[in-house]
Amino acid sequence: GQETGYFVTWTQNQPPPPPAPTADIKTNGSDGPITVGYGASVTVSWSSSNATSCTATGTRPEWSGPIATSGSSTYNPTRNDTLGISCTGPGGTSPPDSVQVNVTGPTADIKANNTGGSMLVAYGTPVTITWSSTNAASCTATGNRPEWQGSIPTSGSSGPYNAVTTQTLGVSCTGNGTATDDVTVNVS
Fold first, then answer.
1. What percent of the chain has pLDDT over 70?
2. What is the pTM of this model?
3. How far is the CA of 37 from the CAs of 42, 86, 169, 174, 177, in angstroms?
């Protein structure tokens, strides 16, 4: 009798490759760039899938290094920042995700007797200086009036003083940038 050879072949079911991880970061619930006032509270939230570890990246020094695979934190931005996240898992590394936080620049406004720019008063007229700012961390009094120099609150009033010489009074306020304004009190 003749024998027939049997070849037995089998295929082992390969497990599917692990899924690639994903990473997602939002600020104040938004994927897109957000614009906030100086020092406003911003909530950073992030999540991932198929990841075992995540890393914070971007331009904010405090937002760097290993972080949890999901979470949230708040901070008070004082400059424009990019916050990013990248996550790693058995399936490799996720495409990075990032969001931009833009901080509104400061404004400054100063008036003498409620008038901005330049004004003319008679010799000895009482003059009250008022000033205000937005999105500023600090303000400084500038100009050529000796009594109007140095650090001042971000808004307020000063005086009245009696105008006897022509003087320029300025305010310079700093936040995410610097804003200045001045008023000249001309004495006739």
1. 94
2. 0.81
3. 10, 28, 27, 13, 12
* CB of 86 closer than 8 Å to CB of 104: no
Whether the predicted pLDDT of 145 surpasses 70:
yes
CA 110, 111, 112, 116 dihedral sign is positive
pLDDT of residue 12: 72
Residue 4: per-residue pLDDT: 65
d(CA 108, CA 39): 17
Paired tokens of 184? 């000249």
User: What is the average pLDDT across 86-104?
Assistant: 97
